[in-house]
Amino acid sequence: MIIACPECAGLNRVPNERLKQDPKCGKCKSSLFNGEPVTLNTANFDHHASKAELPLVVDFWANWCGPCQAFSPVFSATAKELEPQFRFGKLDTEAQQTIAARYGIRSIPTLMIIKNGQVIAQQAGAMPPEAFKQWLSQNG
């Protein structure tokens, strides 16, 4: 499986049986899974969304959005729990307007699962932890 590094966005080939054995990036030697959402931007988004084979769960958010702030701990806790089944990433729609426009983000928070460059699920609005995990299990 091709995995993008959360630090340098370098692409790494990792056998499925090694995903839970703390694999390291061949380029920067960072851990490929640190249990934290990746901050997505124009420099690393396509590596995680299109070139990596791990499903990417994106939280499209903004700093001024109350529901986004309330959902952030749920997203982070779920990332810690479910990685490496998914890669979790946060995209600030104010700072990354081009990417938000590419995906037609009209309301925030918007959650999206992207695999091999294709959106496979999308949900507008924050969710409680169990509903979020159920949504991921149904769509991942």
TrEMBL record:
It holds the Pfam family Zn_ribbon_Thio2. InterPro entries: Thio2_N (IPR049299), Thioredoxin (IPR005746), Thioredoxin-like_sf (IPR036249), Thioredoxin_CS (IPR017937), Thioredoxin_domain (IPR013766). Residues 8-140 form the Thioredoxin domain. CDD domains: TRX_family. GO terms for cellular component: cytosol. Keywords: Disulfide bond, Electron transport, Metal-binding, Redox-active center, Transport. GO terms for molecular function: metal ion binding; protein-disulfide reductase activity. It comes from the Bacteria. PANTHER family: GEO12009P1, THIOREDOXIN 2. Belongs to the thioredoxin family. This is Thioredoxin. It comes from Veronia nyctiphanis.
